[in-house]
Fold:
Amino acid sequence: MKVALTIAGSDSSGGAGIQADLKTFQALGVFGMSAVTAVTVQNTRKVYAVQEMTPRIVHDQITCLFEDIAIHAVKIGMVSSVALIEAIAAALGSVTCPPVVLDPVMISKSGYPLLDQDARQALVARLFPLAEVVTPNIHEAEALIGGTITDEAGMRAAARQMLALGARNVVVKGGHLIGGQATDVFFDGQAFHALTRPRVDTPNTHGTGCTFSAAIAAYLARGCPYFEAVRNAKHYVTGAIENALPIGQGHGPTHHFFDLYARAGVRADTCDD
Structure:
């Protein structure tokens, strides 16, 4: 069985972070492992606080897994400080590293900052060179390039700029733009590909970015080429959003196992006899 490792923060509400990543890996037929970078205090309404793990603990979580287990893909999510970024870069630099997907998580849906201002430069300098695919949303891309994105042309320009910063493949996620379609732009330095799906009208979108990047990592672990992995991940996360769960009083989570439930004839809102 293929194995994927997520290096990310824990979401106490279960919809994002390592919880979403592990659910995504399992749903897509990949065994998931985790290195926890931080513990968050959050629910579906907001993030209240973040407690980082020590850099040494994060570093050693990663290296001990590589010493024992063949890992076929890595996903990096929330890393909130320069010290954590340096620890992750050192750990991955000390092993034979499989494809890495970097989700540059900077701010929560409720507006809580998840990446220190001084850590942005370190993220680019230390983790971009390790990543095969970088997956910023519109707001994250704007922060990384220092500009404004209002349309697909702006997304393409941002993708070019991020390749100039050291990324190999970039997916700029367009879910935050206004319109009836949700378009993501993939760029590998040679060609652009627009991945468009009808926008799903639901407030329950907690963890979609984590889920998307984890799905890319899962498909890379299974041996898919980069664009095929991104295309498959787009299909998966769209289905998870279409079947999102109305849990909590804020933004509920996507349904990571929607396809498995459908195949098994299981409804999440009923009791078996």
